[in-house]
Amino acid sequence: MAKKHTIDTIKAAKNSEKLVMITAYDALFAKLFSPLVDMILVGDSLNMIFAAKPDTLSASMEQMLYHTQAVCAGAPESFTIFDMPYGSYTNKKDALKNAIRVYQESYADAVKLEGGKEKCHIVSHLTKNGIAVMGHIGLLPQHVRGAGGYKVANNKDKLIEDAKALEDAGVFAIILEGVKADIAKDITASVEVPVIGIGAGKDVDGQVLVWSDMLGFFEDFKPKFVKRYLNGAKLVKEAVAAYAQEVKNGRFPTKDYSY
């Protein structure tokens, strides 16, 4: 099945149209999202959503590959990005080995990795070996323990330097997370590849949100930048409660639902 987007069409969207990206972790939701968005990110946030872990750091290659395979099966026409888990790209050799696994064991179109100028030698090594790479700067979830928590990134000069370095290394797009809107605007203008914001204001080239946040299924906390477009948890609880009540009082199944 032909892809709706390629590296070239995504890059061409810069200064032309806003790009829409959402996370997905399974075939069911990927199929629902696919007609409505430009890109699907199989984010390591699944470690918190599916595995109830306090952060993303224990996500493994096997775990990420399993979910990416499911997403690609459910939405074969979508441009799908594999989020390289913590520890999978600490050096060029391991990064290439693991990225090759992504291409060989799934139909993901690209990989994403966190870090700026200090990761550019790895980005360059991957892109020179045929791997499409999305960068990620600003707030870095995989650095949460070393950074002492989730903190808004405000060093504009460093972030612009990181963005330009990643562009030079060959990324086709950059995620910019947890950055003040005025700084994000300047970063976006400093590079020719699309900048996808999450908690980075509106003056970027597109937006990404975690699906369970924006649909109201994840209730543990709500980041400031998340707009809930649905109260999913409430609706599910009400539906399951209605089902349970009907089973208890014998109202389900009726003849309409019996052979």
UniProtKB/TrEMBL annotation:
Main role? Catalyzes the reversible reaction in which hydroxymethyl group from 5,10-methylenetetrahydrofolate is transferred onto alpha-ketoisovalerate to form ketopantoate.
Write out the residues that bind 3-methyl-2-oxobutanoate: 44-45, 83, 112
- Note the NCBIfam families from the entry: panB, PRK00311.1
Annotated keywords: Cytoplasm, Magnesium, Metal-binding, Methyltransferase, Pantothenate biosynthesis, Transferase
Subunit notes for this chain?
Answer: Homodecamer; pentamer of dimers.
Q: Which cofactor does it need?
A: Mg(2+)
InterPro entries reported in the protein's UniProt record? Pantoate_hydroxy_MeTrfase (IPR003700), Pyrv/PenolPyrv_kinase-like_dom (IPR015813), Pyrv_kinase-like_dom_sf (IPR040442)
- Cofactor note from UniProt? Binds 1 Mg(2+) ion per subunit.
The GO terms describing molecular function are:
3-methyl-2-oxobutanoate hydroxymethyltransferase activity; magnesium ion binding; methyltransferase activity
Gene name linked to the record: panB
Which compartment or compartments is the protein found in?
Answer: Cytoplasm
Of the GO CC terms on this record, one is: cytoplasm
What protein does this entry describe? Answer: 3-methyl-2-oxobutanoate hydroxymethyltransferase
Catalyzed reactions per annotation: (6R)-5,10-methylene-5,6,7,8-tetrahydrofolate + 3-methyl-2-oxobutanoate + H2O = 2-dehydropantoate + (6S)-5,6,7,8-tetrahydrofolate
What CDD domains does the record point to? KPHMT-like
Q: Which SUPFAM superfamilies match?
A: Phosphoenolpyruvate/pyruvate domain
Q: Which family does it belong to?
A: Belongs to the PanB family.
Q: Which residues act catalytically here?
A: 177
The protein's superkingdom reads: Bacteria
What HAMAP family does the annotation carry? PanB
User: Top enzyme class of this protein?
Assistant: transferase
Under Enzyme Commission nomenclature, its number is 2.1.2.11
Task: Provide the residue positions that the database annotates as binding Mg(2+).
Answer: 44, 83, 114
